[in-house]
Amino acid sequence: MSPERRTYPNRRQVKVTSESLADRAAALLDSGYRLALIAGHDDPDAFRVVYLFVAARPDRRVELVLSTSRSAPQLPSLAAISLPAGRFERELQDQFGIEGAPGQVRFSAVGESILQLKARLRLAHKGIEKQAEGRLIADALPLAEQVCGDTTVGHALAFCLAVEEARDWPVTAENQVLRAILLELERLYNHVTDIGALCDDVGHGLAIAQAQQVREQLLRINRQVTGDRLLRGVIAPGVTRVRALPDPGALIAIGSDLRQIVDLALGNSAVQDRMDGTAVLSSADARDLGALGYVARASGCDLDARRDHPFSALTAGVVSTARSTGDVLARFLTRADEIQHSVALLGQLIAVRPPLSAETTKPTWLTAGSASGVGLVEGWRGTIAHRIEFGPDSSISRWKIVDPSFFNWPALTVALADTIAPDFALTSKSFNQSDAGNNL
């Protein structure tokens, strides 16, 4: 198939002042948008902050851009209307002059009952975003794969989508199909890993042993498809290359095996007792905190970028796995459901029979100079957001990364209120958020 220019959602930029920011943001939130990221830009003549709001059905994206004096900056807080905004604002302080402090998880408990848990993360910022400044695209791509070790495809793809939008880089439909296949393979092996780990935390040795066998099968499939067990080195702007397509029959067998493991675990009354009703995150709290991925869906918030912000038309009809109870059991079952849906989706994608290499050479019309782009991807933990700006020399001037863990870590502390200390490990595993993805 000949390369085609991808049709990107209309990303509208609106310049705001310190006085109008809160009203503009509140209007977007009231209209069904959610805050996806806040990115600070240390420009030569001003301090600039970009607030990205996104909405689904149809895919919509609005950026509020606030510039303020470097000598007397005025950045009004949005924490009163958006809890995630407060965390982004504290991150801005970290990145522009405040020294980091050791990460801590502190309990306040009476006996075994947890009254409060404070997760003070960011032991240190890795500086990945800063390392990309001044680099060309090819030099920054390896950094994207290293944002979070278990989310190689998700972050590499979000980076590429942002670059392709900024540079008007054409891609073929087959290219996007290959990317969707890789994304589902990454979702599969991580969800299977978590299913096994949750069984381990409740002491079901047979279930964890069987889950580990299934995980190893998936990692071997990853290596057959890409040459790497963690799916590294196969996605670049305009390019996706694999060695082989997965065997649909093997994936169906894995789905069947996993279903039996889940039935085995839930057939044990001790497993049900530990998971059912433990560490509940209500739908209201999930919405207020901006929770994403399986954490949000287990609490009744049906968010999925494969459907809400699709990069391939073949993923737009993804089936909802939303549940309502918001407890450990719901997060366990949401993963189990998503494994089956991923197996089915992979069957549809493989049936397209895309070529093993889909590449678009750098086109003659590729835009140069200053530009920006946004990439939204449903990683296995939830929606990943990347925003890239290029300077006049076509090098990266700013790269903002938001892993879903940034939104979901506060939800863990809320869910743990009024639980018991012995359930901390089980609850933490049911969320399974990333330190690496949070401490950028």
Q: How does the SSE layout of this entry go?
A:
Layout (H helix, E strand, L loop, with lengths): L10 E6 L4 H10 L3 E9 L4 E9 L4 E9 L14 H13 L8 E7 L2 E8 L7 H5 L4 H9 L6 H16 L5 H29 L3 H22 L8 E2 L2 E3 L6 H19 L2 H7 L7 H7 L3 H6 L6 H4 L19 H24 L5 E3 L11 E8 L4 E8 L5 E7 L2 H11 L8 H8 L3 H4 L2
Parallel strand pairs: 1-4
Antiparallel strand pairs: 2-3, 3-4, 5-6, 7-8, 8-9, 10-11, 11-12
Helix pairs in contact: 4-5, 5-6, 6-7, 6-13, 6-15, 7-8, 8-13, 13-15
Organism: Kribbella antibiotica
Cofactor: Ni(2+)
Keywords: Magnesium, Metal-binding, NAD, Nickel, Oxidoreductase
Mean pLDDT over the full residue set: 89
Structural class: alpha+beta
- The global form is globular
For the biggest sheet, the summary is: 4 strands, mixed
Give helix % range.
Answer: 40-55%
Task: Give a summary of the structure in a few sentences.
By secondary structure, the chain is α+β, with helices and mostly antiparallel strands.
Describe this structure in words.
It is a single chain. The protein is built from 16 helices and twelve strands. The protein folds into two domains: 11-99, 2-Layer Sandwich (Beta Polymerase, domain 2); 128-438, Cytochrome-c3 Hydrogenase, chain B. The relative contact order is 0.16. α6 runs antiparallel to α7 (205-226), α6 packs antiparallel against α15 (424-431) and α8 packs antiparallel against α13 (328-351). It is globular. It is 44% helix and 18% strand. With 440 residues, it is of the alpha+beta class. β7 and β8 (239-241) form a beta hairpin. The strands form four sheets. Strands 1-4-3-2 form a four-stranded mixed β-sheet. Ni(2+) binds at residue 148. This is Formate hydrogenase. Keywords: Magnesium, Metal-binding, NAD, Nickel, Oxidoreductase.
